[in-house]
Amino acid sequence: MDERITRLRERIDELNLELLERLSERAEVAEAIGRLQTELGLSHYDPVREKAMLDALVDANRGPFEDATIKSLFKQVFQASMQLEVEQDKTRYLTSRRTRYVDTVVTVRGVPIGGEHPPVLIAGPCAIESYEQLDAVAAMLATRDVPLLRGGAFKPRTDPYAFQGLGLPGLRLGREVCDAHGLGFVTEVMDAADVVVCAEHADMLQIGARNMQNYTLLRAAARSGRPVLLKRGLSATIEEWVMAAEYLLAGGNEQVVLCERGIRTFERFTRNTLDVSAVALAKLETHLPVLVDVTHSGGRPDLLVPLTKAGLAVGADGVMIEVHPNPAVALSDNKQQIDFEAFDAYLEATRYHGRLSPGRTELYGVEG
Amino acid sequence: MDERITRLRERIDELNLELLERLSERAEVAEAIGRLQTELGLSHYDPVREKAMLDALVDANRGPFEDATIKSLFKQVFQASMQLEVEQDKTRYLTSRRTRYVDTVVTVRGVPIGGEHPPVLIAGPCAIESYEQLDAVAAMLATRDVPLLRGGAFKPRTDPYAFQGLGLPGLRLGREVCDAHGLGFVTEVMDAADVVVCAEHADMLQIGARNMQNYTLLRAAARSGRPVLLKRGLSATIEEWVMAAEYLLAGGNEQVVLCERGIRTFERFTRNTLDVSAVALAKLETHLPVLVDVTHSGGRPDLLVPLTKAGLAVGADGVMIEVHPNPAVALSDNKQQIDFEAFDAYLEATRYHGRLSPGRTELYGVEG
Amino acid sequence: MDERITRLRERIDELNLELLERLSERAEVAEAIGRLQTELGLSHYDPVREKAMLDALVDANRGPFEDATIKSLFKQVFQASMQLEVEQDKTRYLTSRRTRYVDTVVTVRGVPIGGEHPPVLIAGPCAIESYEQLDAVAAMLATRDVPLLRGGAFKPRTDPYAFQGLGLPGLRLGREVCDAHGLGFVTEVMDAADVVVCAEHADMLQIGARNMQNYTLLRAAARSGRPVLLKRGLSATIEEWVMAAEYLLAGGNEQVVLCERGIRTFERFTRNTLDVSAVALAKLETHLPVLVDVTHSGGRPDLLVPLTKAGLAVGADGVMIEVHPNPAVALSDNKQQIDFEAFDAYLEATRYHGRLSPGRTELYGVEG
Amino acid sequence: MDERITRLRERIDELNLELLERLSERAEVAEAIGRLQTELGLSHYDPVREKAMLDALVDANRGPFEDATIKSLFKQVFQASMQLEVEQDKTRYLTSRRTRYVDTVVTVRGVPIGGEHPPVLIAGPCAIESYEQLDAVAAMLATRDVPLLRGGAFKPRTDPYAFQGLGLPGLRLGREVCDAHGLGFVTEVMDAADVVVCAEHADMLQIGARNMQNYTLLRAAARSGRPVLLKRGLSATIEEWVMAAEYLLAGGNEQVVLCERGIRTFERFTRNTLDVSAVALAKLETHLPVLVDVTHSGGRPDLLVPLTKAGLAVGADGVMIEVHPNPAVALSDNKQQIDFEAFDAYLEATRYHGRLSPGRTELYGVEG
Question: Which of A234, A333, B364, D84 has its CA 20 to 30 A from that of D328?
Answer without folding.
Answer: B364
